[in-house]
Design a protein that fits this description.
- The complex is a heterodimer of chains A (108) and B (238).
- Chain A is mainly alpha-helical and 108 residues long.
- Chain A is 69% helix and 0% strand.
- The relative contact order of chain A is 0.05.
- Chain B has two domains: 73 residues, no CATH class; 156 residues, no CATH class.
- The chains are: A mainly alpha (108), B mainly alpha (238).
- Chains A and B meet through helix 1, helix 2, helix 3, helix 4 and helix 5 of A and helix 2, helix 3, helix 4, helix 5 and helix 6 of B.
Chain lengths: 108, 238
């Protein structure tokens, strides 16, 4: 098993921190230009527009695990395909239904 | 030694060769995706990964050597995750009014992702360690590998399952949502983020900024919730 397949730990707390800073900035200086016009905004927009690129190095490691995937074969592939489809459907339907309840204001 | 192979030896000594190859493969894949008007099947991650895998195989390059160069791109996943704060800030008025549907869809989607995957693989007779490796497949790779390791799974199998799930979700989300007649980009994006983490989020940003914002929220929250529910569910299975 190739050990070298490193991943960075989720920097989600840092994201919350940046979000909080941006909210405070908008509150304190409501007339300041929006963050999208700052260099920070430009870099972030560029990174997110090319988010696919950032998964390529990790993705290229799949080949070294092709044998493991094939070993468990049909079961794993079926589980991945069906589970992904069902999860997409359930998540989106629950979102739309609950959002609809809220809008009518007669949620049970 | 021919001139070409001498050039190869020179280039191969530098990790920057594989950095350049990664960027080149992505540039071509993204151009193809654009030319196909972002058709879901022409997924840039899938095309670039297939091209690079073929190059690594043809040149007999070990993945570790490749990663020495590609790590500079991989590193940007951290800054990109932080950058998700910017669309969240920009679309905050829309997000604020959707807190209840976000929490409801998160709970339902998170449970569905884990239970359906483990249930199907279990029905196919997969052993416990494979089930533990599969359970966190819908969350971002770093968190999924941590969960899998804690449960006695195989983190590197988990990483392969996570990436495959991401690509599957990114390909399936648009045609599925269209077939279901769902036009709400908040719901479509959120579903992409819950089912297929960052690769689904990348797809969502290609389609619509609001979808991307909601996918980014789902990506962050689902990592947290899955880390809480998977150990509880797997304890029950063991």
């Amino acid at each position: 098993m190739p050990a070298a397949w490193p991943f960075v730990w989720c920097p989600c707390p840092t994201r919350a921190l940046l979000f909080a800073a941006l909210q405070v900035r908008a509150r304190l200086r409501p007339d300041a230009p929006g963050v999208e016009s700052l260099p920070l905004g430009a870099v972030a927009t560029f990174l997110l527009a090319n988010l696919s690129l950032l998964f390529v190095p990790a993705g290229a490691g799949i080949t070294s695990h092709a044998a493991t995937l094939a070993e468990h074969g049909v079961g794993l592939i079926t589980a991945l395909v069906l589970s992904t489809a069902v999860t997409l459907a359930v998540t989106a339907l629950v979102f739309v239904k609950v959002a609809g309840l809220g809008r009518r204001g007669d949620a049970p | 030694m021919s001139d070409a192979s001498r050039l190869w030896v020179y280039l191969a000594a530098s990790p920057l060769l594989w950095l350049a190859m990664t960027l080149l493969a992505y540039a071509i894949a993204d151009r193809l995706s654009l030319a196909a008007k972002r058709h879901p099947l022409v997924n840039p991650v899938l095309i670039a990964v297939a091209a690079l895998s073929a190059m690594l195989w043809a040149s007999g390059t070990p993945y570790a050597t490749y990663f020495e160069g590609a790590q500079f791109v991989h590193f940007l996943l951290g800054p990109a995750t932080v950058a998700l704060a910017i669309p969240l800030h920009r679309n905050w008025p829309v997000v604020r009014t959707a807190i209840v549907p976000i929490l409801a869809a998160l709970g339902a989607g998170s449970l569905t992702a884990v239970i359906s995957a483990v249930g199907i693989a279990w029905a196919f007779g997969a052993p416990y360690d494979v089930l533990a490796s599969l359970a966190p497949k819908s969350v971002t790779a770093a968190i999924a590998m941590g969960i899998s390791e804690g449960l006695g799974g195989n983190p590197s199998l988990t990483a392969a399952l996570v990436i495959t799930t991401g690509v599957l979700g990114a390909i399936m989300v648009t045609p599925m949502m269209n077939a279901m007649g769902l036009t709400d980009y908040r719901a479509r994006g959120f579903a992409a983020g819950v089912a297929s983490h960052g690769i689904g989020t990348a797809r969502a940003f290609q389609v619509d900024p609001v979808a991307g914002t909601f996918a980014g929220i789902a990506l962050g929250l689902n990592g947290l919730i899955t880390a809480l529910i998977v150990p509880a569910l797997m304890a029950w299975l063991r």
